[in-house]
Amino acid sequence: MNEELKLFVNFLGQVRNYSEHTVKNYSADLRKYEIFCQQKNFKSWSDLTQHDVRDFISQVRRNGTSPRSLARLLSSLRSFYKFLRNEGLATSDPTAGINAPKLSSLLPKAMDADMVNRLLDFKPNSWGDFRDKAIAELLYSSGLRLSELCQLDMADISLENRICRVLGKGQKEREVPVGSLAINALKDWYTQRLEKLKTSEQAVFINKSGSRISARSVQNILKKMSEKMGVPYVNPHMLRHSFASHILESSGDLRAVQELLGHENLSTTQIYTKLDFQHLAKVYDQSHPHAKGD
After folding, report:
1. Strand runs (DSSP E) across 119-244, as ranges?
2. pLDDT tens per residue across span 156-168
3. Is 272 one of the annotated active-site residues of the chain?
4. Cα dist from 182 to 82, 130, 208, whole Å
């Protein structure tokens, strides 16, 4: 049974082009399932029934696993059995008909425009300041994922055309516009970058040693920037969420936001309609004569 797991993990990485992080999550989930199957002495994936899968889910839940993690676990199992059936390695799907636990609606944290302006309203004084401002401006201007930002090479950004070419999830490429403030910050950073660069490194954002910057470093940069500018802690995802919600508030064009964010399914983007409604409700409460009682 272990061989089928290896085949599936290779399929995710090499055929589906899932990120290393996603593949690790699938592997960890299925390793728990494999241990469960070994304890029950199952010899084949087809030996398991819907009752067995429910038993497994219940066992994991009793160990204190959150509903969100349980939902991801069930999703991993469904993908695994779909793979097995497509490859002729299983004759049935015991995950069919099993519903994931209901999740609370967790809206992304978005900053209002004033808070974004407070975060970015500073004049760079050092090499690091120029880089850090360019990072924050680009994240907010173009709604990039943290991984997408770190992967950017010099050839991926056209300052003249104000376009950024991004390699997103599943190795899918898209082009996103870059705003004028981000373009100016990038131009300033490029000048500083040349002074620091000692190798042929093509990464847009580099560390002090001249190598491609890491995701952890970007997170720390924004944390320090937040403290310095006196705003609540800002992470890369908050800037991406703020980008999306502000575009939707102004345009109402959900399809456009989907394309800009690189979401495969519109349902993923629809969470921002809830953010948009919160904004509209706030405007209503503040402006409508009958919104509040005496």
Report:
1. 157-158, 163-167, 173-177
2. 999 999 999 988 7
3. yes
4. 44, 11, 22
**How far apart are the C-alpha atoms of 28 and 32, rounded to whole Å?**
7
Annotated active-site residue in 18, 33, 81, 145: 145
Please answer whether residues 108 and 241 qualify as being in contact, where contact means their C-beta atoms are separated by less than 8 angstroms: yes
Q: Does 264 lie in the same domain as 145?
A: yes
For residue 240, indicate whether it is catalytic: yes
**Non-local CB neighbours of 88 within 8 Å, separated by 6+ positions:** none
Whole-prediction pTM value? 0.59
Number of domains in the chain: 2
Query: Do 26 and 123 fall within a single domain?
Result: no
Q: Could you report the per-residue pLDDT of 115-126, keeping only the tens digit for each?
A: 899 999 889 999
Q: Is residue 288 annotated as part of the catalytic site, yes or no?
A: no
Q: Is residue 290 one of the residues assigned to a domain? A: no
Are residues 156 and 261 both part of a single domain? yes
Judge if 154 and 231 occupy the same domain. yes
Q: With the CA atoms of 281, 287, 293 and 294 taken in that order, what torsion angle do they form, in degrees rounded to the nearest 10? A: 150
Which tokens belong to 40?
């029950």
Residue 200 maps to which CATH number?
1.10.443.10
Per annotation, catalytic residue among 133, 193, 241, 263: 263
- Which domain, by its residues, includes 151? 113-285
Annotation says 193 is catalytic: no
Can you list the residues of the chain whose pLDDT is less than 50?
Answer: 280, 288, 290, 294
Q: Please give the distance of CA 17 from its chain centroid, rounded to a whole number.
A: 15
